[in-house]
């Protein structure tokens, strides 16, 4: 036998089968190493004894496939020259071609829900709401599916968890808790990697809704939540004109204008529900508890030095009788939008200090398209702040202070300490 071309898999099989024949490895162990069955190992051993290493090569190597066509058919097909429309006509007659009209996908209309508060569609619309008078921003829209009534609207910099927390707080305080929200597959509402190793399997917004006993449903397409999509298109025309007439050019003034606009809009365009019942449930949560729900909450492990990491910051817990026993335990970090974060353990707030703090947008951070404009504005604001690096020399570290040079002249006199006199007694 001459030269034989072998793959890495074949060489690996030769090594393992040689160990089996020499008695250094069992057949079962070889099956585990080679990821094949015991029966296949026995077949390979027979071929290895009879033909050596060349017997392990696949028998079909170098041969044509059993499903290949002969060269004559290949040459005949390549020599055919016909027009595109002729070929398309033939395929239409045989049912092998679908026209653009036949390939269209249709979304069947869905009936409205029967009760008010049963399903509320939510979405964000990024647009130049203030035209050239102000910066572009996002409008969060909550609309009832049964009545097309605008339930909550808020101007925010971008679609983020904090923005939806603020809108949700206004919604539940004004109307109560609906049965379910209907949204798209934005990462605020849905974990797009269900097999992720970290996390609890739900987003921060989803966790807050679960604590408020509100369901969140995600639409599979934008047409499925067409009611809020059409409302966004209508608002991009009507609301923009109303803001122009009112000479509003910023988000704070716009948010103050929205309640009156929603009232007039609902009086003109909302419809009565099929059933008169209101499925909103009363919010039986005190204000402090609601603030704890509508914030970012994460579990963090406390190290042996009573430190924990959160948001690229190192947090050092201040020592006391309670904190000293928390090494190796998990604490919960409450990150609020309007006040400093808190570290709690079983409801007890723990004192802490921040060892290092970095508020920059993290390098190579993954930014979604809906938040790209806001992220770029943040980066630009950070770049406008000129940060000069502070470098300490070794003299600065040891506290060295430079003294002025002393000049010695003819009138220089050394200051000698007065010699104490000793009084002798007889």
TrEMBL record:
Occurrences of domain Integrase catalytic (ranges): 105-294
Alphabetized Pfam families for the sequence: HTH_29 (PF13551)
GO molecular function, one term: nucleic acid binding
Example GO biological process: DNA integration
Top-level division of the source organism's lineage: Bacteria
PANTHER family linked: INTEGRASE PROTEIN, TRANSPOSASE RV3428C-RELATED
Protein name: Integrase-like protein
Organism: Edaphobacter modestus
Highest classification ranks of the organism: Bacteria, Pseudomonadati, Acidobacteriota, Terriglobia, Terriglobales
